[in-house]
TrEMBL record:
Any Pfam family matching the protein: Mfa_like_1
Top-level taxon: Bacteria
Protein name, as recorded: Fimbrillin family protein
CDD domains linked: BF2867_like_C
Keywords: Signal
Leader sequence segment: 1-26
Signal among keywords: yes
InterPro entries in UniProt: Mfa-like_1 (IPR025049)
Amino acid sequence: MNVIMGKVWLYGIVCLCMCLSCARVASDESGEREICFRGNVLELQQVHLLGSRAGLGSGDKVQLYIVEQEEEELKLPASEDFYQMRSDANGNIDFEDGEKHVYPNNPINIYGFCCRGMEGNPADLLNVPVRVEGEQVSEEALLRSDFLYVKSEERYRATDNVISLNFSHQFVKLLFHFRTDTPETVDFGQITALEVLNVVREGSFDVATGELTLGDAVDDIQAQPASESMVIVLPQKVKGGDVLFRFVQDGKERSYSVPADGMSLEKGKLYTCDVLINQYPGAGDKDVVISTRVEDWDESEPPIYVVFEEGQNVVATLTDVSSGVVVKRADLYLSSENRNYEKLNVPVIRNKMEFMFPREKEGGTLQLNKARFYTEAGDEFDYYFQDKELLGDNLDELSLVSPKVGDAWGDGVIFAVGEVTGYDEASNSFVTNVDGINAYRGRIVANASLGSELWSETKSKGKASLIGASNRYDGLENLKTVEAFARDNGETLDLYPAFKVCKDLGENWYFPALNEIRWIVLHKEGLGLEMGTLSYGSSTEISVKDCGGVTKSGSDSLFDKAIMNIWPVRAY
């Protein structure tokens, strides 16, 4: 059977078909090409549920509209352009009638869709009714709810061997992942209901443009109640404050409400709802409290984190906060003998913060190791605690007194407190500002050396040039200068190994300036550093061929831009 594009008058149909039949046979013998399709339908329409895998296979239906472009102006699909197709396991899309179809005389464009829940040729291609199932508790229901679409306006001709049709998802998939840190008290086998609420389930789809128009009715969708489950919904904006989903676990109903500014569910995207349920023992007879935390997501759709915790809410008080610093929230990093805990985005109001205490046993305590605080001014700072035990009895106090030189701080030891603004050569001391937030700024030195490294490679342009890394009290500025020099000369920091090995330690680590390494060597005993009898280089450039360094006694010394001992530092 041949593809016939164009309208045929009734009175001439028999004669015309006979002529075309003869013409097509003749043209086939002269090399006219058969229309062949390949598509990505199979890989797109696979779902994983209840430990199995389901998807389209041989014989599944695909609806295509093969539109002959008789003129320059784009001709849109119509009902008479419809062909029922079938997909097979090899990615081929064949004509269901099993006949051979060849290219017409004019180029063709392809429009189409694949939806297991729809049969045949819709009457109005500008308003194709679409919907998702109200009960999506099986793989079949999920496949019936999925909708794939292709629009390929490439004006294909008989020179094209195989037309590749790249279908895309037009709806949205919600994936629910339930997890717990307290498996002794939380049984996901007791999830008895899971529903998506307040969503539009029906609409109309324009095959020519690929645009979806939502209906007016808002409805609910039942999902498979399990620790891993999924639902397909239409793309839409969910109103702020509406409950998006609810579930029942161990007889308790919980729900997630959309933030005040609403939630956009965009077509073709997967939204993962990561639901954490914890049940902790309390410190005694306390009421059960449930708290919910949601992190924002960006355009790459990271998971939506939802936390449901039962246990004891406790209050801890911040004391000795630097003048002018107003803390508004905190991230707490705690530990017990068995595991580590993170309590993120804890609100702080008038220096008091309330959070769910992840107690492992009744009356148990936790160690507070570190906290990150966020201020109303938009600043943030880390604070490290030594041997700080939290009792979780509402009487815990966290002193944020300004740290001092010699304190262990994260992965190093403090050698300067405050914002460093200069260096007093006469007294060999840093000039600092410790007002307000600067009380929690400073610099630390690593606990160990990085060994020996070249200041610059022999083949680097900086080996025989003055780079401009002349800062004597801030090696971070010297690092930026060297990076800019390398970039401007088509190089990378790899050609400056001493700088590179320090930076690779992490954020704000750098090769110290001359005054920094001198101060450290002069005070190494007070800092508890085992620096031996070695001399150490610095990032401070003195001349075209020299950089500054210090001897084992802390005296200044010139070094060639060659190999030297490195001791890294970090700004905090």
